[in-house]
Amino acid sequence: MAFRELVRKKQALPEEECIRILKEEKRGVLAVLGDDAYPYAFPINQWYCEEDGRIYFHGGNVGHHIDAMRRHNKASFCIYDAGTPDGNPKHPWALNVKSVIVFGRLEEVTDHEKALYISRQLSYKFTSDETYIEYEIQHDGHRVLVFSLRPEHISGKLVNEA
Questions:
Q1: pLDDT for the residue 53
Q2: Element (H, E) at 148
Q3: The pairing of beta strand 95-108 with beta strand 74-80
């Protein structure tokens, strides 16, 4: 499939900046094909793995999103930074926001040890408290479900809100 190019090419972010945002930002919105072919988008945290270039998501093993991901593997993931003031005194509220959209295919991680490893990596984005992380893995690790998003197209842009 040919993915659309950005209309405003001057606002495009380089690939390295897109990857930085995927690595550093903690949350985004994953969109899948939900019940009755309605789009279903939901906030979720993620971990970008530099070794394989995939984006990993973890959570419980039941729910609307799990059913949707198993039924149809195409998805898009949108993530954006907190923005920075654009410095224009006429619009003191306006921010420059960097966003990234990834189109790709979802795959369930069936290797349980790998799923636990990914869960740990994702946890490190939020805390360095090893005791807490290990408690969560021991307590809920048997229920964790991990999906990867294998990117087919990544684009990012800088948007000025003014």
A1: 97
A2: strand 145-160
A3: antiparallel
The model's pLDDT over 125-144, given as tens digits with 9 standing for 90+, comes to 999 999 999 999 999 888 99
Plot region of 83 (φ>0 → left; ψ -120 to 50 → alpha; else → beta): left
Q: Contact 18/153 with Cβ under 8 angstroms?
A: no
Residue 65 included in any domain? yes
Tens digits of per-residue pLDDT, 43-95?
999 999 999 999 999 988 888 989 999 999 999 999 999 999 988 888 889 99
- Total tally of structural domains belonging to the chain: 1
Residues forming beta bridges with residue 98, ordered by sequence position:
158
Buried b / exposed e along 24-60 (16+ C-beta atoms within 10 A):
ebeebebbbbbeeeeebeeebbbbbeeeeebbbbbbe
Q: Is residue 121 part of a domain?
A: yes
